[in-house]
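just leaving the lab so this will be short. below you get a single protein, a line of residues and a line of whole numbers that encode the local backbone shape. id like you to explain what the token line says about the fold, in plain words if possible. thanks a lot i owe you, the record is right below:

…
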Amino acid sequence: MLSPAQLVRLASLLPMALLVACVGGEDSRSSEGCVPRASSTTATRDLPALPAGDGLTTVASFGPNPGALEMRVHAPASGSASAVVVALHGCTQTASAYASAGWNELADEAGLVIVYPQQTSANNFQRCFRWWDAAHTKRGAGEAASIAAMVEHAKKTYGASRAFVTGLSAGGAMTAVMLAAYPDLFEAGAVMAGLPYGCAATQNEAYACMSPGKDKAPSDWSALLPEAARGASAPRVSIWHGEADYTVRPANAEALVRQWTRANGVDATPTSTETVGPATHDVFRDASGEARVERWLIQGMGHGVVLDAKGGCGRAGAFLVDKGLCSTSRAAMFFGLLDEAGAPTLPPPAGATSGGGGGDDPTPGRTTPADCKGD
């Protein structure tokens, strides 16, 4: 039984604990503390685990791991893959839970290997990837280096020559980190309800980035990126956000557009706009007509990943919102892994080289844009 003095002390600490739990996570701050705002139909904190197993395998050793992350993979039964896709979960979540976004099923059809980095509570008690901490957002350092090592290991093991990255919330912010720190490793990425690179330098500053967001000119956002992530070697970026997101405000989608259009040398005004189901889809093309950046704003949706669960895309749940639009397959189309009809575009390699953790270089050398963009 706690004494009256202990109860008073505990009550004084509760608001701070709730505030800290919101950083990079799936809750929004209100007068009542952290309130789940994933969608109007769900209030649970964790994503649902896949029934009858998650289809993931743990890789115990994959090379240098300065960020002390764990690695899970879903690979084709053939043992070879055409490309690697990294899928980064949000705070409080796990790799197994985020597999409900539907990437495993797409991987089986398209011959992909999906890498799921998993955060640990030892690193962050809410299992957030530390997108605001410079010790984990620079090339060759911390969690960013660990994720890069996982990709190199997967490419070597499964014979893949290309890599892409996506993630939700804190995982979305970490997606921007990986594109900024390793533009030679990732051709493109899809940021789901995430934040621009370099928005926050401290955990406290992350609050202002999440809500209400920061207002900077495209040149100022782009200046936060490493030089290697701008110009001819800039990766392509797909940006997804719910218009009713009270956790990571939609202003962050605009900030991401400004940052990555400038980095890609295209105008921040869309070259085309269309309505697709519940979403407004803006495309930002270069002079050749290639889509360098795209933005999807989903009407009426809160914090989460938009899916078409009834149509066979993923499994609906907390932060996995069934709106009849499959962000997973649309992101794969943007990556060039599926054509407009949803058919795979890249045949898997004839065979894969033998894997083995422990020797992969997490900071691959720079390559030319042609090397990064081609097969």
